[in-house]
Design brief:
The structure holds two protein chains of two kinds.
Chain A: H1 4-40, H2 47-56, H3 59-67, H4 74-97, H5 126-149
Helix pairs in contact in A: 1-3, 1-5, 2-4, 3-4, 4-5
Chain B: H1 2-57, H2 59-62, E1 69-70, E2 77-83, H3 88-103, E3 108-114, H4 121-132, H5 137-146, H6 148-151, H7 159-162, H8 173-179, H9 183-198, E4 206-209, E5 212-213, H10 219-233
Parallel strand pairs in B: 2-3
Antiparallel strand pairs in B: 1-3, 2-4, 4-5
Helix pairs in contact in B: 4-5, 4-8
Classes of the chains: A mainly alpha, B alpha+beta.
């Protein structure tokens, strides 16, 4: 019993590390993707996109800080960003799909948030990609928390 | 004693895996960066290809009769500039293009097209076109560009701030205000905006030299494109 326990603990630590690492991969891919859309493809980000960026970009740097050495408490720091980013993404998706009427949206001037320059496969818009990314990161961080508190 | 061994074992495992973890992390970071750079490369080369093809097919779009022009009509090098009067870079490029034309006297002609991307900038285009009816287009354009910071605060063109800047050009303002909403000016703007879209012009200024777009944006690139075109046309 005594000899098995530390190995088991180490295993769970390792898989928690992998979960956070995957979350970092998602955040980094999203960040680079967002930069590609705005800087390379010249699609100007609307106000809501900027707010989502504000909550996505820091994850690229915060998550690795908890990876080396592994520190499960990083969930406490990264999760609030993820939740707020997810909520903004949800609002954006609802706006694009028309559930939220445009007149209560904060994007009255500049680049309209409702118009979607990209619709891959006929449904995959940028806010949809964003909410998928935030959801993945949120789920990965939650699993990390559960794994680490066991 | 037993406990100590346990801890040691744990430490050992931990010591080994960070190396692997670091390798995985750095490897992924490098891979992501490579994919990003490769993506830029592929996208840019495809875009360039597309715009070169578009420009080739759309020589008509680049040779519209209505565009204000400068330089002799028989000059063999034709620069088409898509310009937004409220765009700061357009303001900086204007004298550079003029210098190029001066350096290659009678070999270059310039056509100006409008790409009023900034908010309110279409009204300034209307003023320019109305001034053109009084044969004061180029003076007005120069005054408009020179005074840009005064009438376009925060990148928003405000035509009411523009009037005082055009004071000493001898323009008939009553006539300008009457002319600027004429339907033929609507047509000019609509045509230029449609052509800009067809030619993939998304930023200003954009230049086409004998139909060829800039490979990438910059003064050096423009100068090289112009110098090459002059060398080919007048060899």
């Amino acid at each position: 019993m005594n000899t098995i326990e530390p190995e088991g603990q180490d295993d769970s630590l390792d898989s928690a590390w992998v979960l956070v690492f995957l979350a970092w991969l998602v955040a980094s891919a999203s960040t680079l993707g967002a930069l590609f859309l705005s800087q390379v493809m010249d699609i100007a980000p609307c106000v809501l996109c900027w707010y989502q960026r504000i909550f996505m970009f820091p994850l690229v740097f915060i998550l690795p800080a908890g990876l080396f050495p592994f520190d499960a408490r990083l969930v406490r720091y990264a999760f609030p960003l993820t939740v707020v980013g997810w909520m903004i993404a949800l609002f954006h998706v609802l706006l694009v799909t028309g559930v939220v009427p445009e007149n209560i949206s904060p994007c009255t001037q500049g680049i309209p948030c409702k118009d979607q320059p990209i619709e891959w496969f006929g449904f995959l818009t940028i806010p949809l990609l964003s909410i998928i990314a935030f959801s993945l990161i949120g789920l990965l961080l939650l699993s990390t928390y559960i794994k680490a508190s066991k | 004693m037993k406990k100590r061994v346990q801890v040691k074992k744990g430490v050992q495992i931990k010591k080994e895996s960070p190396q692997l973890q670091k390798a995985i992390f750095i490897g992924s970071a490098v891979l992501l960066a490579l994919v990003f750079v490769l993506g830029i490369f592929l996208y840019e080369s495809e875009r360039l290809d597309k715009s070169a093809k578009a420009a080739e097919q759309n020589q008509i779009l680049l040779a519209r009769e209505h565009a204000p022009r400068l330089g002799p009509a028989d000059a063999k090098v034709h620069i088409v500039e898509f310009l937004d009067p409220a765009c700061g870079t357009c303001r900086e490029f204007y004298p550079l293009v003029k210098d190029m034309m001066k350096a290659n006297r009678d070999k270059i002609r310039l056509s100006l097209r409008y790409a009023p991307f900034h908010a309110g900038s279409d009204n300034v285009v209307r003023v320019l076109e109305a001034a053109r009816k009084q044969n004061k287009f180029w003076q007005t354009l120069e005054a408009v560009l020179a005074s840009q910071p005064y009438w376009a605060p925060n990148h928003k063109a405000q035509v009411e701030l523009l009037w005082p800047q055009l004071g000493n050009l001898g323009l008939d303002f009553e006539r300008i205000k009457r002319d600027m909403y004429a339907p033929e000016i609507d047509r000019v703007i609509a045509q230029d905006v449609a052509d800009a879209k067809a030619l993939n012009v998304t930023k200003t200024p954009e230049f086409f030299v004998n139909g060829r777009p800039l490979p990438s944006f910059g003064y050096e690139q423009l100068k090289k494109l112009v110098d090459d075109a002059v060398a080919t046309a007048y060899r």
